[in-house]
Amino acid sequence: MLLKKQTVWLLTMVSLVVVLSVFYITTPLKPANQHATMTSEEEKANDEKTSTEGTEVSIEEMTDGKVASGISSDEWFTALRMEIDDQRAKAKEELQAIVASSSVTAEKRSAALDKMEDLQTFAAKEAILETMILANENYADALVKAEENQVRVIVKAKELSSTSANEIMRLVHDELGQIKVAVEFQPIK
User: Fold this and answer.
1) Rounded distance, CA 61 to CA 63, Å?
2) pLDDT at 114
3) In this predicted structure, which of 79-83, 158-162, 181-185 has the lowest mean pLDDT?
4) Using 50, 70 and 90 to split pLDDT, how confident is the model at 81?
5) Considering the entire predicted model, what is its pTM?
6) Hey, which residues does 182 pair with through a beta bridge?
7) Where do the domains of the chain lie, and which CATH numbers do they carry?
8) Closest to 78 in 3D by CA, of 52, 58, 59
């Protein structure tokens, strides 16, 4: 019996769908919360491997017996950026776990997805603002930390005038809308 090409094509596609469905149903589910973790011994070994070359650390004993320590401002900016990235990564992991969980309601999943989108939006706008601030040659470095209800801007410069702070605040308002802005100054040494 001779079958038409369309019939053969249709039967082939139906059989493919059936095979893929069986494969999908028989594969074991992988829990979303299985992440690679390090043991405390591995963490200690990893911490020992980190390099401290080029790090300027100063420790001073104050007259009242208290000890003050400081690191160079370049490393301070880097450490603060890493801290912000770590906080965002943890928040994103938590939100992804909520989205992947089968016991969570649709409203909570939607809210988690919205928060993940907000995190990405804030990170992108922070990068844009940092680039715009650094376009001004008066600043050696800039760090922008945007949160839901406020923005913290830290600039590294020889001096920061109120006019410069107002320009930075205007840039933030143009990019993020009317939001509370704090501009901080880190002197160049």
Assistant:
1) 7
2) 92
3) 158-162
4) confident
5) 0.57
6) 152
7) 73-187 (1.10.287.4300)
8) 52
Closest CA relative to residue 35, chosen from 110, 90, 74, 115 = 90
Structure tokens at 9: 């094509």
Q: How far apart are CA 4 and CA 57, in angstroms?
A: 81
Helix axes 106-134, 162-176, angle to 10 degrees: 140
Span 11-32, pLDDT tens digits: 888 888 888 888 778 877 655 4
% of the chain beyond a pLDDT of 90: 10
Q: What are 114's two structure tokens?
A: 């919205």
